[in-house]
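can u pls check wat happens w/ S-adenosylmethionine
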Amino acid sequence: MGQDRISKEQHDYLAPLYPESGRMKNSKSLGEEIQKGFLSITFWEGQILNFLSQIIAPKKILEIGTFTGYSIQWLAKSVAPDTKIYTIESDSEHHARATKALNGFSGIQCLKGPAVEVLNDLKPKAPFDLIFIDANKNAYVEYLDWSTQHISKGGMIIADNVFLGGAVYQPGLETQYSPKQVETMRVFNKKITENPDFVSVILPTFEGLLAAYRKT
Ligand SMILES: C[S@@+](CC[C@H](N)C(=O)[O-])C[C@H]1O[C@@H](n2cnc3c(N)ncnc32)[C@H](O)[C@@H]1O
């Protein structure tokens, strides 16, 4: 979310190579109207998501935490037309803005409700080939447990904010996150990196972007 460590020169060089669609730009502006700090992933993280998604070539994508629908568009950008894509959002205003921004983007279903409940309803659609976790941090371990049970072999779990602004590795650092959220994220990172079914990496973005590939 938020903090872009990309210089203007880097952005101006990369933007034509990895263009954002008009709909992506619309999602961004709808998000900025609500939250100036912008909750969505950055342009650069979007390219990483798109790259990983193209490698996995998913038939089913699931995102937990839609906001205004920016990241789901990077995940969905280059997939096969029959790919099923679900994204979950609990906040009514965010959900309404995402639905508006994604209008006409075929294949993406914006599901409204608390993720834990929606995930329960989605069990019959599993397994998913790509799951992106980017919602309330206090439930990351629950989301991870659900995801490790419902990801396909050869699929990938991606999670944003696994550094929690640096709080997970720098005790005492003042951040917006509570000690409980920090502890939850430490458990999350330990669980996925120690899981023998996955090979994983935490990409050193400012927020920390974890990608875990299910190999067995
Ligand atoms: C960081 S934002 C998601 C940004 C989005 N993935 C992007 O990059 O464009 C997190 C979103 O999760 C939503 N959220 C928070 N708690 C949730 C819950 N329990 N269930 C579903 N969504 C939740 C918030 O309302 C917010 O819109």
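The first strand starts at residue 60 and ends at 64.
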